[in-house]
Amino acid sequence: MKTRITELLGIKYPVIQSAMAYVAYPPLVAAVSESGGLGILGAGPMTPEEVRRSIHQIRELTDKPFGVNFLPYHPQADEVLQVMIEEKVAVASYGRGDPMKIIERTKPHGIINMPTVGALRHAVKAEGYGADAIVVQGMEGGGHTSYVATTVLLPLVADRVKVPVVAAGGFADARGLVAALAMGADGIAMGTRFAMTKESLIPDSVKQFYLESSENDTIITARVTGTRCRGLKNQLTDMLEGERRGFPVLRTFSGLLQMRRAFNVPWWKVLVSGLRMKQAYEVSVSGLGELAYASFGGERMYLSLVQGNRELGFMPGGQVCGRIDDIPTCKELIERIVHGAEEILESVGAKVKS
């Protein structure tokens, strides 16, 4: 199956694995790319050295193209970008930030820029800066998400930009791929669905929690990472949503200290990161507060997605978890989606003709 996105990325199928912190590690990334899709390393919480080591590990497992997702407000964002350039990564993936600076720095090195957006104006702006493709994520998606449903946002963006568009938020199967193509996309990106595969390193008990969750068992909250983030309901989200509204001073200082220690950077870099985050997310409160929130959120994601705590950790996930009931390999999943989509396209054609 060929589309503009397969041609641009040099992949076999128009299926992309969304970048997920603490989930999109080398085994998953390599499995997706090796199976004909595009795997993307979730490098958000990684140091530059960890990013480089992960890139090498992926290349030991596959010679197919893959991407690296990073946070533009990362305390060592410049160093991470330099690693990506030196390692000749195929695709740069990122959310809100300053796409112009990222594109200006990476494009001369042949790196394809594929930012993720949740609003029409951000898509138009990214294309204007020179983005090669755009991932459009609607509010159904897990993690940081939009205010607008995919079925509304996707056609809006597809009608306004000329670069290839990838649909994200609510996709898990062949029907989703066909629907995305019909609405103007050139492919789909999936996070929750790829998290529920055999190559995903999420603990089995947490995978089971996802499988048991319905479309009604997710919540959008800003109390975990500081910005709107969709995840599974559990004891943590119940507790945080029940907190008195206000600015959590102790959590702020604790989060900032944790971030400084994790990346081993001076305080001025933490301050710069806070300013970048305030600009990127257009927040009304201190960027440092948002940065501290992000650090707290990262800690809670690690607690669940790596350590297996289903109640006090945070598990990002889309509403599509209600439609996931098995854990296949990445190869089985991608081939099921693509072959199923081809069959659906044929049957729809026959139905219309009849």
Write up this protein:
By secondary structure, this protein is of the alpha/beta class. It folds into two domains: 230 residues, Aldolase class I (TIM Barrel); 100 residues, no CATH class. The protein has a five-stranded parallel sheet. Strands 2-3-4-5 form a four-stranded parallel sheet. β9, α8 and β10 form a beta-alpha-beta unit. α8 packs across α15, α12 packs across α14 and α13 packs across α14. The longest helix is centred in the C-terminal third of the chain and has 24 residues. The protein is globular.
What is the straight-line distance between the termini? 25 Å
Note the overall shape.
globular
Number of domains: 2
Within the largest sheet, what's the order of strands? 1-10-9-7-6
CATH class of the largest domain: Alpha Beta
**Average pLDDT metric:** 89
CATH architecture of the largest domain, please? Alpha-Beta Barrel
Determine the CATH topology of the largest domain.
TIM Barrel
Oligomer: single chain
* Secondary structural class: alpha/beta
| Estimated radius of gyration | 19 Å
Helix-strand pattern: HEHEHEHEHEEHEEHEHEHHEEHHHHH
CATH superfamily of the largest domain: Aldolase class I
Share of residues in strands: 5-15%
